[in-house]
């Protein structure tokens, strides 16, 4: 596949894209050596990206041949949601996932997808694009640092999960 024979573009995911996005989520889970903790994954993606409870935004990176624009392949995705900073009194974007299929890495598609979110943040006067990266994921850390990303010093992330707080909710 010659890069100059294809066009890369980013667009919001459609419901029809969800099976491909889900497959790529599984690839990311495997890449990170993570054990998924969900049930009804496609239904949850649809509910939270397109339903009345919409809280996430999914964008797909498409590679489309110039000679056949109706054909194309999703080479990656981003999933983000809005958060709010009480320090700035403005929203920000929290990037939950950015993923590019292995065979398309190193072509600049991940950078374009991340910059797409930066553009959305700028256009909407959001404060930042925030994300987390595994300490062991050195290539991603280098990628974010090339784009002038930096760790947030002085903060420790905590997560309260259902199985941890459920007992306390019953007792109080």
TrEMBL record:
What InterPro entries does its record include?
Acyl_CoA_acyltransferase, Diverse_Substrate_AcTransf, GNAT_dom
Write down the SUPFAM superfamilies for this protein, in alphabetical order: Acyl-CoA N-acyltransferases (Nat)
Identify the keywords attached in UniProt to this record, alphabetized.
Answer: Acyltransferase, Transferase
Q: Does the keyword Nucleus apply?
A: no
A molecular function annotated in GO for this UniProt entry is:
N-acetyltransferase activity
Give a yes or no for keyword Acyltransferase in this entry: yes
- Which residues belong to any copy of the N-acetyltransferase domain? 8-172
Q: What is this protein called?
A: N-acetyltransferase domain-containing protein
Upper lineage = Eukaryota, Amoebozoa, Evosea, Eumycetozoa, Dictyostelia
